[in-house]
């Protein structure tokens, strides 16, 4: 049996267990560190899939692209679409065609999102401080189907700079992780520091204006709307009036925070399993994690916001939970990726939601929302719905203040759902 090398899984400075991989069969193996189990610490770190037992556990069912054969909570550490593009480009520049999932985790090492770390580490040379415009120049060339793959702008060091600060962030849009010194304003790679001397940001980059509008400004307008709705989000801002920057909730109080998406917690693939992609299931995960009832109220408000403001891309990886290591408990993580995910320049006859509501993916009604409220004992659901609906006029005001083009403001606004 051809097994890949074994790597250690680390959390909060402790070895939690070891992970192995069978390249031929795509199987993964996990075994808890007996000393960790016997300590009784962090008993709810992996609440659903890993059994807290000493024998090796084998995983054969996670063959989808999302998991690459790894246990879902470990696969959550892998880069998503954009990160993979940059990662593969950097490997190609070094003459490497393919790496195994375990090797990829070794490159993620201690630089990934959340608190999980992997050893032994594939060492990366240090790079200089960050210039966002230089990064964008490199990204534009990489993402334009490698039209220009020669010259200094695409050498290994340049790609390394982007790789280190970009590959651990999920999603399809270009983004980087940076840390900004609170006193000096100096920007460095987001994997080097966790201290409270820095603001730790995830930055979504605006690369060009070919679409005729700035998606990052639209997301910032949605952030402002969500704030007015009382939705819990990390403080965010626009950099140079065009790049959307949000403080990372997995870097707080000078420490790494353990965070898992619904996909990572459950093994429900957000790409290929529509039967599992429902708000009811997200609520059930919250109940399984024993979050406080206020988190269920918050989740209901987010659902209503996404329906009203037509965020149809609210899939299972766009809902996360955050672990409190002191209390050995879970909470709903701050909201993220709240935006208008469609192209307002196109006309869509129908658009299905990523998550169904009361079995529906289109034409959501008051009845559907209230069915969720009744099942999960949500207090004052009609009041929550009315509060979100009252914010519809604010879209035009906020979007105009941000100088979003009038035609984009109008087309997005016409797509909002007045729930009746």
Topology, pairings included?
Blueprint: E1 7-11, E2 14-22, E3 27-32, H1 34-39, E4 57-59, H2 72-75, H3 81-93, H4 101-108, E5 116-119, H5 132-143, H6 156-166, E6 175-181, E7 187-189, E8 198-204, H7 215-228, E9 236-239, E10 243-247, E11 251-252, E12 255-256, E13 259-261, H8 262-266, H9 279-288, H10 293-308, E14 320-324, E15 329-332, H11 366-375, H12 381-389, H13 392-401, H14 406-414
Antiparallel strand pairs: 1-2, 1-5, 2-3, 3-4, 6-7, 6-8, 8-10, 9-10, 11-12, 13-14, 14-15
Question: Could you give a short description of this structure?
Answer:
This protein has 14 helices and 15 strands.
Tell me what you see in this structure.
The protein has 420 residues and is of the alpha+beta class. It folds into three domains: 7-77 and 97-117, no CATH class; 132-252, no CATH class; 258-414, no CATH class. It contains 14 helices and 15 strands. It has helices at 34-39, 72-75, 81-93, 101-108, 132-143, 156-166, 215-228, 262-266, 279-288, 293-308, 366-375, 381-389, 392-401, 406-414; strands at 7-11, 14-22, 27-32, 57-59, 116-119, 175-181, 187-189, 198-204, 236-239, 243-247, 251-252, 255-256, 259-261, 320-324, 329-332. A five-stranded antiparallel β-sheet has the order 4-3-2-1-5. A five-stranded antiparallel β-sheet has the order 7-6-8-10-9. Helix 13 runs antiparallel to helix 14 (406-414). It is globular and about 55 Å long.
